Amino acid sequence: MLPDNTVPFSKLDEKAQELLMAASAGRKQAYVPYSRFAVGAALRCRDEAQTIVAGCNVESCSYPVSICAERTALTKAVSEGKRHFTGLSVVAERVEGRLTSPCGMCRQMVLEFAQDCPVYISSPELDQVLVTTTSRLLPHAFAPPKSSLVLSACRSTTDDCQQ
Ligand SMILES: [Zn+2]
C-alpha cells in the first residue's frame, strides 16, 4: 500500500516531473554489479539556472565503500560549488510494493544542505510519486546549527572557513 501523500506523476508540476526524469536518467548510469539494484537521484540547485545534478549508486567489491545515488548527486553538486537545493528526486524499483526512499545515511547527509526541501520518490515507471520533504524523512534530526550556515557559505580554503 502506498502512503497517503502519493500522487500520480501527471499531477506534479513541470519542475517536479523534470527532476524525476533526471533521476531516472541518472539511474541508467548505476554501477551495481553486486546488488543489481539501480537507483537514480537528482537535486535541483538554487541557482539562477536552477541546475539539476543527477547521480546514481556506485558499488565496490568492498561493499561498505559503495555510495548511494543521493550522496553521489550531493557530492557532485557540492564539489561544483552548489550548496543550496530546492528539490530532490529518487527513482528505484519498488521493494515488496513499497517505493524505495533514501537510506538513513543519505537522509542525514541531504539534510545538511537541504532542510524542508521537497522530495519526490518514484519507481522507474514514473507512475505514482511519493511527495514529502527532507525534514519529514528525518524527524527530530541531528541537524547542523544555524551558525554552520556561515561555514557552508564559505567557498574559500579550509583555513578561511575555520572561524
Ligand atoms: Zn543512501
What does this structure look like?
It catalyses: 2'-deoxycytidine + H2O + H(+) = 2'-deoxyuridine + NH4(+); cytidine + H2O + H(+) = uridine + NH4(+). This protein is an alpha+beta fold and 163 residues long. The chain is built from 6 helices and 6 strands. The chain has helices at residues 14-27, 69-79, 104-113, 134-137, 148-153, 158-161, and strands at residues 6-8, 39-45, 52-56, 85-92, 118-122, 128-133. A hairpin with a 6-residue loop joins strand 2 (39-45) and strand 3 (52-56). The longest helix is centred in the first third of the chain and has 14 residues, at 14-27. The termini are far apart. The structure holds zinc ion. Residues 68, 70, 102-103, 105-106 line the site of zinc ion. The site of zinc ion has 6 residues, from helix 3.
How is the topology of this model organized?
Elements: E1 6-8, H1 14-27, E2 39-45, E3 52-56, H2 69-79, E4 85-92, H3 104-113, E5 118-122, E6 128-133, H4 134-137, H5 148-153, H6 158-161
Parallel strand pairs: 4-5
Antiparallel strand pairs: 1-6, 2-3, 2-4, 5-6
Count the DSSP helices: 6
Rg computed from alpha carbons, rounded to a whole number of angstroms? 16 Å
Estimate the global geometry from the Cα principal axes: globular
The share of residues in extended strands comes to 15-25%
Number of strands: 6
Family: Belongs to the cytidine and deoxycytidylate deaminase family.
Cofactor: Zn(2+)
Domain CMP/dCMP-type deaminase: 14-145
Function: This enzyme scavenges exogenous and endogenous cytidine and 2'-deoxycytidine for UMP synthesis.
